[in-house]
Amino acid sequence: MGADGIDHTGDRGLNWHKRANWPVSATIRSLAISPSDSNVLLAGTASGVFRSADAGDSWMQVIVSGIHAMVAFAPDDGSRAIAGLRDEGTAGGRAHVLYSNDSGVTFVESTGITSPVTYSVAVAYAPSLSSRVYVATNNQAQIWRSDDGGRTFRAVAGSPMIFGYPVRSSL
Questions:
Q1: How far is Cα of residue 160 from the mean position of the Cα atoms in its chain?
Q2: What is the mean pLDDT of the chain?
Q3: 93 alpha carbon, distance to own chain's centre
Q4: Is the pTM of this model over 0.90?
Q5: Other CB atoms within 10 A of residue 145 CB
Q6: pLDDT score, position 15
Q7: Separation of alpha carbons 122 and 160, rounded Å
């Protein structure tokens, strides 16, 4: 994974091979594999979100706007996915979070995220409660939480720290 596409391994990492032609931006920010079907992949890129239903042999763009996209599948339900990205802009843009209930075929914008300027939007599902989703934006060192699978978010009170650093410095 990187500037020239996606590699895969069939032998636990001993050998790596390029997947099919990578038809998108040079920068892949994240890659998520469906826990229900390992052929279904989501790629968060510098130019939106792409989906593959054939283990990376072909790709379709499912979110066409936004940059610095991060993606994740719910740990116990491959039909649910989340994507975080920001508007295009020079130093930062408005944060957007979108959720999917159809394995990343379509996405709907979440509500409650009010970060007007951010560089990154990190997303993660809680491993033990997949209806809980967390989002971090580096504007004002803010963490957001959803308890309905990513439909609505609310800000988490306080000034969060990750590994001893403010979120602003970590994203």
A1: 20
A2: 83
A3: 16
A4: no
A5: 15
A6: 87
A7: 14
- The amino acid sitting at 50 is F
Instruction: Determine the Cα–Cα distance for residues 153 and 100; give it in Å rounded to an integer.
Output: 15
Nearest to 5 by CA among 38, 39, 41: 41
Q: Which two tokens stand for residue 113?
A: 């995220």
- 91 vs 69, residue with greater confidence: 69
Residue owning tokens 């988490």: 156
**Helix (H), strand (E), coil (C) string for 50-102:** EEECCCCCCCEEEECCCEEEEEEEECCEEEEEEEEEECCCCCCECEEEEEECC
Closest CA to 92 of 124, 63, 67: 67
Joined tokens for residue 8: 């895969």
Radius of gyration for the chain, computed over Cα atoms and rounded to the nearest angstrom: 16
Rounded distance between C-alpha atoms, residue 78 and residue 145, angstroms: 20
